[in-house]
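Researcher: Next entry: PA14 domain-containing protein (Planoprotostelium fungivorum).
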Amino acid sequence: MFYCERHTPGSGFYASTSVGFTCDQIDRCSICWGNGQSCCTCNDNSVCTVDSCDPNSIDQKCNFAPISCDDKNQCTADTCDAVDGCQHRDTSTQCNLADQCYNYGCSKDSGCWSQKKGGCDSDICTKRTCNPTNGGCTEVDACPKNVACQEYVGCSLSGGCQYKPIDCSNPVDCGWGYCNKTSNNCAKGTYTPQDCKGCNSTTCFPQDNCKIAFCDANGNCQHADKCVSPSPCLVSSCNLTTGQCSTESACPSADDICQPRTCRVSGSAAVCSDTINPCDDGNDCTIDTCTVVNGTASCENVLRNSLDPCIVLTCVNKTIVPVNFTCPNDDKCQDVQCVANVGCVAKNVTVPDYGNKCIITDCDSQIGIFNTSYPCYPSDRCRCDPKDGCQCQPLSIGAIAGISAGVVAGAVVGGVAGAAVLGMAGKKGFDYLQAGSISSGGIQNNPLYEDNINAHANPLADD
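Model: Predicted structure:
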């Protein structure tokens, strides 16, 4: 066998042999089994292509395959210049929108992103809105001023909107007074002596600092809570020691920056709801975490990971898509599977037992399970039975004499028998026989062979 590698169009090789030297495929460059590239002169003078010749063309046919300039960066536009090669133009400025209430940027993995600016968040006392034109905040007092029969005192972040009842008491004898919730004005008057029933500021007084007392139109002493909530979304309370009223939100939040809550009135009840996480990037592929830093929201958006080694999480259009992991396997004698929460586990494949003594079954890491016929010799009188193995017919007297001659020329007989084994069983049969089952060169493979009692000396030979 000869092997020649041509390095230049002018190189050559000469060999003289009696063996027939043929080539059943010559390329257009006159190279045996060549790919047509050794004499290729294609060149488009561009670094943006890979130049080659079509190996199937008789005349030179050029192929100019474009190279990839993809830098895997969503913030660049990728092009190729014939002289300078790949160009990556920054496109992150296109992420800046007109709404000044948001911060904008570009991520090389996901492209443009936006995040609402902090510092313009509402609280229990003030409603703030952001102006998209200049990013400035507009503030409006959150506490209603026209609460029936209540006088607005002020607001604090700890206590909320503060009110005190309008004093409509009438200290005169037989006087009465109350607040009209429709007109928000005090109504006062006096009873006639016969109708007075003795209800006045002396006999009708509050039971504690958090109650008010008044005489109704019928002269009866009435008591009511001093601190009344103006809205179901506000909870009023009273300090028994000082009589001071305070209000707080009916939908309190432990964190007004990262976990704000809103309240709406439904009938006479307060309905609380959580507002959108200020750090929500709108991407289901990330875990969004909000932390309060110096009174503002600090955001962290981290990609989700799979806890199962057999599941690979991929992000498609901002949505998590789980994909089953395929274990690599280069050994056809092993079955490799991915076990949930464990990983790749390899097991040996089962080599089948056909119960046929004429077939050798084994497994090779490259080709897998294979079968090889078991040889029986001599082949002219021996056959293999699937159940009992090799079965040979008795030799005739002449055949036995031939075997004796074979003993003398044992090397020749053994060599021929070994060649027959190799020819029938193939590569895998050879490996099997070479391992020790049948020696390819021994005359003892003859089923009728016996050791020579003359220590292998020819009894008919003269000294």
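Model: Note for the record: The first strand starts at residue 49 and ends at 53.
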